[in-house]
Specification:
The chain has helices spanning 5-29, 48-66, 79-100, 122-136, 160-184, 210-216, 234-239, 293-305, 342-356; strands at 70-77, 106-111, 114-118, 144-150, 153-158, 191-194, 199-205, 223-227, 246-250, 257-261, 266-267, 271-278, 285-291, 311-315, 318-321, 333-336, 361-369. It is α+β, with helices and mostly antiparallel strands.
Length: 375
């Protein structure tokens, strides 16, 4: 159920009051880094009024925090990598649509920040445009322009509005990843906000070592999908010599170990979406994901060739799930369950998204901000 904007605004104002009180206490006691507080990240609002209110409140809190002194870090997201990823995903989606619709085509290629394909049959061109428009319905980030180049040539490209929406999504996912990484590093009091269209500003009060913060983000989240080796028990491989091309990895929550292939069948770059949810039967928290066109084809091939075998979903060197392949999975989506709490399912989904973020974060600025003089 979607929470009404008024209720979310109320909760955000209450959170602001609590945060302000804690920061006031921190100033008086000089115990900033021991405060168990993390600023809430509100869900995207349905209307611009809530977005503006959220931005004003967040800016107010950030300003108050910076008066305490600490470390300021600014990152810029890789917009070039984003553009490349968007066009590559579009090409894969076009290929999938053409194949599924049995539309004859030739010359499918990326050219001039768009995708070109030649379809001799006029009905085939109309079918492609209609299916892509239907897939993008309700998704501003997937809106396309379709241009008839003559002689059967069709050119497709993301609209400017779609590119801007993708950039906003990338910044929001990057902020979520930053917040989780800071939390994992034990840094609980922090302000993480958009700074313009493609930058992110981090401020951590009381910390006078910004390099400690930037070190947290030097490593990219590693997501991989690997087959499990059944030639010997993982415990035997761990105490002896594992088969060539394999390694033993620990579980994410359990104390089990898994013997897995070193080579990945798929990785984070093949994921186009990930989010938390609930299993349809048990209502247990899960992390669901969806592959892009390339990932869908690769996943279908892997599952077709390995029915009856378990495969591991590996996140930063830990196996978060190891389901058995029961049948070919050709729809390009799946879900991860593992006796998660809702918070853990959300964290897993966020890390899956972080592993698929195109490019990386470029460090623009890191500096120490001295505390403001007391009146």
């Amino acid at each position: 159920m979607t929470t009404p904007p008024r209720d979310r605004v109320t909760r955000l104002i209450v959170a602001l009051a609590v945060t302000s009180a804690i920061m006031t206490s921190a100033i008086m006691t000089s115990a900033i880094m021991t405060s168990a507080i993390i600023l809430p990240r509100a869900a995207r609002a349905e209307d611009g009024q809530f977005d503006k209110m959220r931005a004003r409140i967040a800016a107010f809190v950030a300003d108050k925090m910076e008066k305490l002194g600490g470390s300021r870090i600014v990152y810029k997201v890789d917009t070039g990598g984003l553009r490349e990823s968007v066009v590559t995903d579009l090409r894969d989606d076009v290929y999938k649509t053409l194949r599924e619709g049995k539309i004859a085509f030739s010359g499918l290629a990326i050219r001039d920040a768009g995708v070109e394909v030649k379809i001799a049959d006029a009905k085939g061109r109309e079918q492609l445009a209609r299916k892509l428009a239907s897939a993008a319905e309700g998704l501003p980030s997937h809106a396309l322009t379709v241009t008839d180049g003559g002689d059967g040539l069709v050119r497709l490209a993301p609209t400017d509005a779609a590119s801007a929406a993708r950039l906003r999504d990338l910044v929001e996912d990057s902020i979520a990843m930053i917040e989780q990484r800071l939390k994992d590093a034990g840094i609980n009091l922090a302000s993480v906000l958009p700074d313009g269209t493609d930058r992110i500003r981090i401020f951590i009060p009381g910390m006078m070592e910004p390099a400690r913060v930037t070190a947290v983000f030097a490593r990219k989240v590693k997501v991989s999908f690997r087959l499990i080796d059944l030639s010997m028990p993982a415990e035997q491989a761990q105490s002896g010599t594992p088969p060539t091309g394999t390694e033993v990895l620990p579980g994410f929550k359990d104390e089990r170990h898994y013997l897995v292939a070193r080579d990945s069948a798929l990785d984070g770059d093949d994921i186009s979406y990930a989010g938390p949810g609930f299993a349809s039967g048990t209502k247990d928290p899960i992390a669901s994901f969806r592959f892009n066109g390339r990932g869908t084809r690769r996943f279908a091939h892997v599952t077709e060739e390995n029915i009856g075998r378990p495969f591991a979903i590996v996140l930063d060197g830990k196996v978060i799930s190891a389901p058995v392949i029961r049948e070919p999975i050709t729809g390009g989506s799946g879900q991860i369950s593992g006796n998660f709490t809702l918070e853990e399912a959300n964290s897993v989904a966020m890390l899956l998204r972080a592993g698929s973020l195109p490019g990386h974060l470029d460090l623009v600025e890191q500096q120490v901000v001295q505390p403001a003089a007391k009146p």
